Amino acid sequence: MVKTAPRKKTSQPLEGSVLEDRKENADEDTSKSRKAMPAVLRVLISTLVLVFFAAIFTWYILWQQYSKDADVVWNFIQHKPVLAGYSYTVILLVMCVIAAVTWRPFLTVGISFVLCSILMYINTQKFNYRDAPLLPEDFLMADQAGTIVQFIDPWSITRLVIGALLILAGSVILECGMRRVFGPHTKNAEWWERHSILPRVAWTMVALAGLLMLARPVMHYEDDSERENSEWITDLKFAHWNQKDDFADNGFIIAFLYNLGRFQEPEPDDYGEAAIANIAEQYTDPSENKKVSLDQVADNIIVVLDESFIDPEILGERYKHTGGDVVPNLHKIFSKYPSGYMYSPGYGGGTANIEFEVLTGLSNYWAQTTPYVTSLSKLNNIPGLVGNAVSDGFSGTAIHPYDGSMYKRSTVYGRMGFDSFIDEKTIQYNEHEANGVYISDRETYREALSVLKNGDDKHIITIATMQNHMPYDTAKYERRNFKLLNVTASAQMFEAYLETVHHADQYLGEFVAELDKLEEKTVMVWFGDHAPAILNEYVDSNNPELIDLAHLTPYFIYANFDLNGLYTEKEVEKLNLARGFEIDAAGVDLPVVTPNCLMNTLYQLLDVEMPPLVYLASQVCEESPILAPTYSRNNEIEEKGVLKDYRLINYDILSGKKYWLKI
């Protein structure tokens, strides 16, 4: 019998090896059948995608900016092709920078569109509520977005978020599909080749260099040397006193770049430690040894910023209304105490900037930022009225019946010298006006009175009210007593505003009556911070007199003891006429000034010794009483003598090396 040899078993590793070989062969066959697109062609197609969509995004941004009016957009492109082309190139270069990071053209398009949508949404909302465009410094308040969002329709935010997510998801899906068209990656290549490190670096450097070179003439337009370099950008012009016109005339992209360049105030000529020291010596009140300090004249000092409070009776025929005097208590106070009209640099907003000027005696005329956010929050010691009073033995309390973090007040107030800060979370009296969203002025004044009556300390109290804050119809009164006689686009909102300011006037009268009862000597500086953003018939009129009228707010200095007079009504009438204001109002015996002049006016009325900064401000207010871009209309005020010294101090404290704070 023939024996056969046993059959050998095939090992498992051999089977695995065969399968792997077959898989590799299959991959090679697939790779051969689907070759990668040449790199040059891939870059060319990607670039064309960016070029095409940059044009769409330029149109989209202009369309959103000009209230979705296609005719206005076409008019801008046809009549200002260089500006439109400049904006397009900026957008394209920004997209190129994003593309260098993602290295995915369609994902870049998706991200770019989402960014454009978010920017223009914020810009639109700010225009709706503040009548002002989006500025670079607004992003410094990103941590307060939660507070700001409550003014906005939540459904519009939801639509924005859903739309952004859908766009990003779509761009990712499209990118995955295009990977099949472009071909497979080379898996066996080195990591820098797989991730295209060298092309990315080169692409980034070229895009950034081009973007910086293109943006520099606009960002540094205020520099004489750079202005010459911008001459090729025809139709380029800026009037920084009117941001609405800047954005309308130049387009969103160019105006935003211009403001980005103005974020840091340029250093004035002759700035240095020696110059600041010389100013400190020069501006010492020559009669300070003959005068007493604040604490010897007053027991309580109160500073009240009344939100959006104006005197409707001085607006003229365009805003005539029924119902009689809207603010009778204000006019009664005008007849008894030093009073006048302040030229507010803001309109419809900018409350913190007005408050900054009043409390510090400094001016935002040159910096044109939001000092609370950009400068003061970084200082350990902020000079001004509060610090002066605290050093004289006063206890400082700040009251703002709203979110204490807005404009970084919770940080800034402490560095001004306040011992305590009462906001909406800590205020005892917190009833809202007519079921509105804001705590009423009556409650805010009650809180101040409780502080004044608490203990035997001398007090300095600042109040920033909220009752009249936009939207001006949040309080739902049973009826409106004042009807506008002329039909305007904002007539209903204006009538709602008149009702709420009428109630604010009532509470002001009540507050003054309570102060009259105090035994302690009490003085109060009261002012409206800015007009409500519903006077567009004046602000957009191109008539300087009407524009100025929309910037006037009332102010007065009350005391429950006798004050020294500074001017007669006749003298003030002449001063105001010389400054371009013909105001027909009884009891006006303080001239039109900007907020930076209110502190030194208080010192003059009390006839007390002035610290150097207050004395300097008093000299400035004699020569240049109105420092506001809307008033000067871009005609630069000649900076010499006192005004030059004042600017150096402003620059030193807000942007410079803080020599003044060390003296």
Q: Which keywords apply here?
A:
28 helices, 8 strands, disordered N terminus, 663 residues, 8-stranded mixed β-sheet, alpha/beta, 51% helix
Verbal overview:
With 663 residues, the protein is α/β, with parallel strands linked by helices. Helices cover 51% and strands 7% of the residues. The chain is globular and about 95 Å long.
Secondary structure layout plus pairing:
Layout: H1 12-33, H2 39-65, H3 70-79, H4 81-102, H5 105-130, H6 145-149, H7 154-182, H8 191-194, H9 197-219, H10 224-229, H11 243-250, H12 252-261, H13 273-282, E1 300-306, H14 328-334, E2 339-343, H15 351-360, H16 371-374, H17 385-391, E3 394-399, H18 409-416, E4 420-422, H19 441-452, E5 458-464, H20 491-516, E6 522-528, H21 536-539, H22 544-549, E7 552-559, H23 569-578, E8 590-593, H24 598-606, H25 612-623, H26 629-632, H27 642-654, H28 659-662
